């Protein structure tokens, strides 16, 4: 359980293991439930089109304590493909992305920031971890550059 009191639903680990072992799932988006008690799977996809994935993050919504909907955070796991430096061939890295936009309301930002480690601990086999706070942080080239350098 996270510092925030948010727990990780078993379906999160199951979806992650399917991505990790099956290699048919390309990405998973997780969200904190509307009652702010549990991290759940929002969506999984086999679609390798990164722009579809990025748009899902950019358009994420969360409700605040009063039930008002606004810009929201998300967690995601993306199986990033890239060319290794020096012509060493194709590589893939399972990358954890914590998407907490700077302009999201305070409560969702706080909850996503304090609940991240609980989800990361539950997902065994993450190769890279990216904290993203604005649209530039989740540009495909930016993600590939950071993942290929091992960050």
UniProtKB/TrEMBL annotation:
Superkingdom, natural source: Eukaryota
Which SMART domains does the entry link to? ADF
Query: Which keywords label this protein?
Result: Actin-binding
Q: Which residues form the signal peptide?
A: none
What is an example of a GO molecular function annotated in this UniProt entry? actin binding
List locations, semicolon-separated: Nucleus matrix
The answer to whether the entry has keyword Lipid biosynthesis is no
Q: Alphabetically, which GO biological process terms does the record hold?
A: actin filament depolymerization
Show the PROSITE patterns listed in the entry: ADF_H (PS51263)
GO cellular component, as recorded? actin cytoskeleton; nuclear matrix
Q: Provide the ADF-H domain boundaries.
A: 5-148
**Keyword match NAD:** no
Report the family membership. Belongs to the actin-binding proteins ADF family.
This protein is called what?
Answer: Cofilin
- Natural source organism: Dissoconium aciculare CBS 342.82
């Amino acid at each position: 359980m996270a510092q925030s009191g948010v727990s990780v639903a078993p379906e999160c680990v199951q979806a992650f293991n399917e991505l990790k072992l099956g290699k048919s799932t390309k990405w998973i988006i997780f969200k904190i439930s509307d009652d702010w008690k549990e991290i759940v799977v929002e969506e999984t996809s086999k679609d390798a089109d990164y722009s579809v994935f990025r748009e899902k993050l950019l358009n994420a919504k969360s409700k605040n304590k009063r039930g008002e909907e606004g810009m929201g955070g998300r967690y995601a796991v993306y199986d990033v493909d890239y060319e290794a430096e020096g012509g060493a061939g194709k590589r893939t890295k399972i990358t954890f992305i914590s998407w907490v936009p700077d302009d999201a309301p305070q409560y969702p930002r706080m909850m996503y920031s304090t609940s991240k480690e609980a989800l990361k601990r539950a997902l065994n086999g993450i190769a890279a971890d990216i904290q993203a706070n604005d649209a530039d942080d989740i540009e495909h080239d930016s993600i590939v550059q950071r993942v290929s350098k091992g960050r």
